[in-house]
Amino acid sequence: MGSGLKTPGPPAIIIGYSSPLSLLFIGIFARFSIF
Question: Which residue ranges does UniProt annotate as crossing the membrane (predicted)?
Fold first, then answer.
């Protein structure tokens, strides 16, 4: 979990954003950041 975010590079970021799990994680993280 979080492998795409840990590895640098634009392709890794694209893959991470493409993954639904990653999107969910980003959403949770954003919610925590806002709160």
Answer: 12-34
